[in-house]
Amino acid sequence: MEKLIACAHKRPDAVCRLICFPWAGSGTSQLAQWGHHFSDSIEVSCIRFPGRETRLDEPFAEDMTSIVNEITSVLLKELKEKPFAFFGHSFGSYVCFAVALNLKKKYGLEPVQLFISGAHAPHSEAVLPLKSIPVSNATDEELTAGLKNLGGIPSHLLQFEDV
User: Fold this and answer.
1) Thioesterase domain: which residues (predicted)?
2) 23-55 residue pLDDT tens
3) What are the start-end ranges of the E strands in the chain?
4) I want to staple 15 with a disulfide (CB 3.0 to 4.6 A). Which of 5, 6, 41, 101 is the partner?
5) Angle in degrees, CA 78, 84, 89, rounded to 5
6) Nearest Cα residue to 99 out of 61, 148, 146, 145
7) 149 vs 80: CA distance, rounded Å
8) What does the radius of gyration of the chain's CA atoms come to, in whole angstroms?
9) In angstroms, rounded to a whole number, what is the distance separating the alpha carbons of residues 131 and 47?
10) % of the chain surpassing 90 pLDDT
11) Quick check: helix, strand or coil at residue 117?
12) Please, what are the domains in the chain?
């Protein structure tokens, strides 16, 4: 459990757990420190993704399912013990949402609160263009066309093959 979960301020008598899911390029240091700012009734933990910090020697996860299954299996016992809430930022928001759905579907467990920042809701119209970009087995041309349609990359940069 320690390799996946960082808890800087253990509070075994806490009434609720707040599990934080960091953004893609982050580790646990910033979010795990939130425990300083909460009362003793809340224990703050942070998910450590593969390929980061003490898991640096592990390969990055190849898909969302493997991340969700690992997190669910490690957290399941603790989440059955007392109420819990999830906070996710950016990539972490999508992971915590997927973990919450998995916990509800498979085990009937739900967070008392789901806090999301730095991301759109999965059903949002802002996400729909992202779903139109082919990722698996896509050619460079298909990926480039999808990125161009999103408008997030200047067209003059897309003309260079090395970009």
Assistant:
1) 17-161
2) 887 777 777 778 778 888 999 999 888 877 777
3) 5-6, 16-21, 42-47, 84-89, 113-117
4) 41
5) 110
6) 61
7) 44
8) 18
9) 26
10) 36
11) strand
12) 5-119 (3.40.50.1820), 121-163 (no CATH)
DSSP string covering 42-63: EEEEEE--TTSGGGTTSPPPSS
Cα 9 to Cα 5, 26, 79, 114: the distances in Å are 12, 19, 17, 21
Handedness of CA 36, 41, 43, 44 (dihedral sign): negative
The CB density around residue 86, as the number of other CB atoms within 10 Å, is: 26
What pLDDT is stored for residue 96 in this prediction?
93
15 is written with which tokens? 């009434």
Active site residues: 90
